[in-house]
Amino acid sequence: MFRIFSILVIIAFAGCDRAVPSVHAAATTEAGIEVRFPVRIGKSNTQLRVAVTDLEKSQGLMQVDKLPGAEGMAFMYATPQQMNFWMKDTLVDLDIAFVLGDGTIDEIRTMQAGDTRDTFSRSDRIQFSIEMSAGWFARAGLKAGDKVNLTDLKKALAARGFISERYLK
User: Fold this and answer.
1) Within a domain: 9
2) What's the total number of domains in the chain?
3) Domain span including residue 121
4) What are the tens digits of pLDDT across the range 117-138?
C-alpha cells in the first residue's frame, strides 16, 4: 500500500510544473522528451533534448548507444544547486557542462560510460546542465565562461509545455 502511495505522490509532483493550457488557446500537441531543439552554445549549434521532470532527468541518456554530431541533453532545475550525475546504464562517454542561471558555463567535466561514481559540480549555483558526447565541447572550442543561449532553451521549454520562467529567469 505504501509503495502505491509513494508512486502516486512521485507522479503527482512530476507534473506539478506543467503549464496550464489556456481555455481559449488553440489545441496544440506538446513536444515530448524525444524531440531535439536547436540551442546555440557559444558559436556552436546543437540539437538538445530537454529533460525537465524527475523521471526524465533520472533516465537521462541511459541506454543511448550514440550521440551523433551536436546532439545532447539539457537537464533543467527550478533552483540553483550543486549537481551530481552518474553514468549507470549509460553506454557512451559524455561531457557535462554545469551552467549558471545566466547561461554561463561554469565548468565542463568528462564522465565515463557505466561509471557509478557521482560527478559533482564544484559550485552550488548551477541552474542546469548539458550533456554531449565526450570531447564535443573541446572540438567546438567551448570552455568555461562561454554562454548558452537562454532564449533557445526558453523556447524549448515552452514547446514541451513547461513554464520557462520557472527554470530560467
Assistant:
1) no
2) 1
3) 33-166
4) 999 999 999 999 999 999 999 9
